[in-house]
Amino acid sequence: MNHTPIEGFSKLTKQGKIDWLVNEYLNGDQEYQHILNQYWNDNTDLQKLHDEFSENTISNFYMPYGIAPNFLIDGKLLALPMAVEESSVVAAASKAAKFWIDKGGFKTTIINTEKLGHTHFIFDVEPHKLLHFFNFSLKKKLLEATDAITANMRNRGGGILDIKLIDKTAEMPNYYQLKASFDTVDSMGANFINSCLEQFGKTLKQEVASSEAFDQAEKDSLQIVMNILSNFTPDCIVRAEVSCNIEDLKDDSGISNEEFARKFKQAVTIAEIEPFRATTHNKGIMNGVDAVVIATGNDFRATEACAHAYAAKNGRYSSLTHCTTDHGIFRFWIDLPISVGVVGGLTNLHPLVKFSLALLGKPSAQELMSILAVSGLAQNFGALRSLVTTGIQKGHMKMHLFNILNQMGATEDEKQHFVTYFKDKTVTHHEVINEFNRLRNQ
Q1: pLDDT at residue 430 in the model
Q2: What pathway does this protein act in (predicted)?
């Protein structure tokens, strides 16, 4: 079908956008209008709030919002909110939390909270001349120029930590950076950081133009390419860990504690040295992290980008988690770089985000970092525990069973039959179809 481009789509009313989409792309089928309508909130004020979170909104896209209880984190017992659509994520996290609750729970350490941003610029000038200009004049001017922007953040204990001149001319002709580090306290800080960086760009241009250190050709060569925060925050990092005596690693799979510890460590080591495995391994970690990130109104795309960049920081993609079994002690931990906030953005607007933060005891940004790292570690522990014992499909497919049955239109009685049928069997799509057909043909 050939479609016609549209001018001014964003200016249409919500109903106007829907009418155009249904007529242009969906053959005028009003069933699609009904699908969109049934996800609108009956509270018009609440729906308007959701509509204004983004652009060109026509409905809400729901995700399951679940709870993983029994997380003992730094001595506090928490129930974690998780917004995720994948089967077995919440169940695996909950099972891991329960496993560790009588072994001291999860311990966390905030290693650093430094966030980064850059002014990227081109300047055809000798590096030593620019460095002298930066050290003896520019750096002070940059801090003075952002004084008003940083005032409130400084009052809360944050602000600009440092500014460095980075020479990148070996990698790209005449390319330099102003690399700034920030502490944004309880906010994620993207708008704050970007505002500071944009002022850096303006100040750099002004100071170069008025300086006697550069000739006119050099001044004319200055180009401010962009001013933008980095979502790679290798110095905004939290460690979460669990440990116990190997003799206390009781597992119900039938293998000994020693064999469990040995196979578990082998599985982690494989993820440390094999990128193909590490990718899936870390994806599982992020199942746990992202679910809580979304539930607390933070940016899961930034979280993902940072974690995977960190996993490749040594030039080869590797595991985010690590394990040792020395001297009879099993130790499993994650160092997770993550930048999140508990003020600003959706945290003060989205009702379920406010519920999530209240459920977690209204944590600080650092406390939320700890919770997120624990969620990722727990998810990874649960996955590896299954992989080295019963296999991943046994638990995952049992959780996926209801998705298959719902696709087939099973009744509640039929669903209960299948729960009983697969109580001592591994769920497979093929076996579900066979048993479903047998049941329906009785």
Answers
A1: 74
A2: Metabolic intermediate metabolism; (R)-mevalonate degradation; (S)-3-hydroxy-3-methylglutaryl-CoA from (R)-mevalonate: step 1/1
